[in-house]
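Chain A, query sequence.
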Amino acid sequence: MSPRLLITSLFAAATLSFAAYPEFTATIPNGGPRGAEWKLTVTGSRLADFESLMFFSPGITQKSVEKVENGKVELTIAVAPDVPLGNHLLRIRTKSGISHMRQFFVGPFPNAEEKEPNSEMDAAQVIQFNQTIEGVVLNEDVDYYKITAKKGQRISVEADGLRLGYTTFDPYIAIIDKDRFEKAFSDDTILHRQDGYCSFVAEYDGDYYVMIRESSYRGGGNNYYRLHVGSFRRPDVVYPAGGKIGSKTKVRFIEKDSFFEEESQLPAEEDPGFNLLSKTQEPAPSGNPFRLVGYDNVLEVEPNEEQAKATASPTGEPIALNGIIEKPGDVDYFKVPFKKGQQVVLQAYAQSLGSPLDSVVNVYNDKGGSLGGNDDGGGRRRLDSKQTLSIPADGDYFVRVTDHLDRGGPNYVYRLELVASQPSLTFASPHYTVNDSQYRQFVAIPRGGRMVLLQNFTRSAVSGDFKFDAPGLPAGVKMLSDLAPKDQPGMPLMFEAAPDAPLGGAVVPVTLKPVDPAQKIVGKMRQEFDIVRSGNVVYYTEFEDKLPIAVVEEAPYSLEIVKPTVPLVANGVMQMKVTCKRKEGFKNAIRVFLAWKPPGISGLGEQTIPEGQNECTFQLDANANVGVGTWNFVVMGEVDAGNGRVYNASPFCEIKTDTAYMTAPAIALTAVEQGKETIMVAKVEHLKPFNGEANAQLVGVPDTIQIEPAKINKDTKEVAFKVITTDKSPVGKQGNLFVQVDVPVEGGTTLHRIAIGSILRIDAPRKAPAAAPKPVVVAEAKPKEAPKPAAPKPLSRLEQLRQEAAGGK
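Chain A, predicted structure.
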């Protein structure tokens, strides 16, 4: 091999190490205690250029890196004492990319590892109170642990299995006494779905056993668990299950057969993933879901099982009605004042908060007439009710709550939130592919390049322009997006890294700040991720308000949109060209995504630059409502560079839109006989003048129909097209025809489409008249011969004798 070929080959191989997407498969262990430093191993692929972990929760830091391999990284992390218990999200950042996120768990207890053999009670592994055991249930495996308790001491067990996110592991747990009787057990729970918890008070001094297995005696190498064993109290649900942000709220923590109460100081900001934990008792390994809102609670006052005894609410909305269906057959009523014309969303929260209640909610007027009712339909935990009420008149209305099966109990807690028009602004990126909510949901910016995400806005009673705000960006990174206009449903959010930007990353809180200082609402990112999913079934999701942003190694290609010299007009078409510059030796095919389209403009969202080629084209189609404007278009590339995906976006390219120069209604249905000619005439209406002549062509017919082009100028009122058919032209209707007009303007021509929906009908040729039938020759009739006299009829002998006798007389 020549030195030149050798250098080229080495360079081509080097390009395969450009920015790429690392894969993150597991953490070992799956969690650890807060207020401590502990060893963590992350596993995956393409990790050889590991830089750091990206934590989404404050108080968790990476202290050191001990070992880096392509398939795993060993490091030490520190978890502050005030980090909330439960799951936390993290990603891996390498020099070449950002991984999908995974979760790991922060618990109250130190870890202990499972040690085999422990599949028989006689071989049970000895553990202590307040420990978390990290283990795995293999096929048909049962794991036993032995713990020594004092009489009257509480033994509590909670399992994290499904929540770890590896597979749909369904653990079964039990507390067993020395005589091998199960004293408490749990398979599934309302609060944690397939993950169970149970509690038992020791009846004697001595040994008890904790057992965990797969509920159907299955299992596998990825059926990991975290088994928390201690003397903690494990509430099913709290009451009330929500409160006003920034307030102090008295809360009842309700267990299977008891409860305790304490006053809780609620956070000052809304958090859809907030979990409440006790501050006075030894905390459970995980909290209870608790709604944080900007309005007050109303707590039921018993007796309220009849409309006449309904608990009164001081306001119709926004308000949260709270209660407990305390016994089988119980019914609760609330009296709520509404105003005519209000549209009130009534959302019930019960099973989503850990309550077993299958809520049925009905609303009546003061005369008992029904205004609405709902059983299921409140989101993924579908047994929660949800409905929208249209208020017909001012007055008091009555909200009735019960269980679908007339069940009840002390933990049948519910919360009804009634909201009409609370101002809010949120934004999030769409899911870019099916069954993977994390695909392209990060910002890995190649040096000297860009990355872009579409952000869709959700507004409620909020108007005005806003601006993106992203404090704390990595060094060398700048945000290129600015305004989020009041009339746009979404905008591209793009970041750029300088060519000499240092490799680094940050988890950045991105918000929308109002342009008008009188507007007090701040838009928040609300990006939903599927954390535990199996096929189409989503078990757990998380919402994030921060973006992982990193500078990574340069990409082996760059993209640019060729700026058009003319505007895209209403009802017009534009061919938008994208060009590519490749690093020497890089020839891979590149997927190119159209990151965003303004309202009224459509087109395919993806094209491909073939292997070894350098351009592709997007066709942009404008509808009739497109007006004058200037828009920043951007495309983003994705390529498999042999070591994972590599992203790079083009710079923004200004494309102008304009009103049309002319329009025309659809040409009236025109019929022609196959093989003949006809004329189709479009009536042109000029909307603004242009210079010179425009070329017009009636398009949309097959090649077997010839239509001659025509010319249009600013004075043309009608344009005629000669249509020539042949015996090969198909018989029938040719629909959805239109006239394409190339109008000359400064810089080139704009392509218009007018007379949209025109129809040409080709009829079968008429049949020639049938020939007159030949006369039928009839032979001349011969004269009829006189009939011969009939032969005499023979007479019988008796008749003969009678004749003879008569003649003799």
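The longest strand covers residues 748-763. The first helix runs from residue 3 to 15.
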